[in-house]
Write a structure and sequence with these properties.
72% helix, 7 helices, mainly alpha, single chain, rod-shaped, 247 residues, 0% strand
């Protein structure tokens, strides 16, 4: 029974608190208005600045060059384009020069090979045919010895004889010892002379004069031979007549 007043006090505290809360909600001190708040209270300033309105640009449509009245925009070349153009010109220049150098080198090699082939064929054509049985090695030595002998014979003469006698003796020995080879050499010299008409004409004149002189020498030699034979025959007849008379 002693604890009953204390229990009553504890039960009264929650009741008083609930009554206070109900009075606060049911009877507020501030008057509530039924009207809506003003628009100035509702509009608040944004924390970010207003962005400019975007304008949607139309998509780029390439103009048709065939359409009349349409003009393409002219733009100046960029440094990269100018550099690419210069590099292209340099490459084309180097390609043209290398191609020209290669063509000249090929032409030079072709000319050199043709000259080498012509030279070897010319030297091979000077050799005598196998059926002639003419040997070059001993015959060439004989011709060289004959030319040296002509030089020795004409060593005390004037310069004209010292230059012409060995050549003449060598050529004469060549015609005697190596007739087929000398004929081939003569044909080769004649082919070269035909390229210069003046030289060929002079050669023909000299050759004609030499042949005519050789013919005259042969004719006179034959005449001298006949005359000497006649003289010898007459002398022998005279001697035989004297011998008969002496008997």
């Amino acid at each position: 029974m002693a604890f009953r007043p204390i229990l009553r006090k504890r039960a009264a505290l929650p009741a008083a608190a609930s009554i206070f809360a109900a009075s606060t909600f049911l009877f507020p001190k501030r008057t509530l208005h039924a009207e809506a708040p003003s628009e100035s209270l509702l509009i608040r300033k944004p924390i970010y600045d207003d962005l400019p309105p975007r304008t949607h640009k139309p998509a780029y449509t390439p103009s048709n060059p065939d359409t009349p009245g349409s003009s393409s925009p002219t733009t100046s070349p960029t440094p990269t384009d100018r550099l690419a153009t210069q590099i292209r010109h340099a490459r084309l220049f180097l390609h043209a020069r290398s191609t020209a150098a290669e063509a000249r080198l090929n032409s030079f090699m072709d000319t050199f090979l043709d000259m080498e082939s012509t030279f070897t064929n010319t030297i091979a054509s000077l050799a005598p045919a196998p059926e002639t049985h003419e040997r070059l090695m001993p015959g060439a030595l004989y011709v060289l010895v004959a030319a040296m002998a002509g030089s020795i014979v004409s060593r005390n003469r004037n310069i004209l004889l010292r230059a012409s006698v060995p050549v003449a003796v060598g050529i004469g020995a060549g015609w005697v010892v190596l007739p087929y080879t000398m004929r081939n050499v003569g044909d080769l010299v004649w082919r070269f002379e035909t390229r210069v008409p003046v030289v060929a004409e002079n050669h023909m004149r000299v050759r004609g004069a030499a042949e005519e002189g050789w013919r005259q020498v042969k004719v006179h030699g034959q005449a001298v031979g006949r005359w000497s034979e006649g003289v010898v025959r007459e002398g022998r007849e005279v001697v035989e007549g004297w011998v008969r008379k002496g008997r």
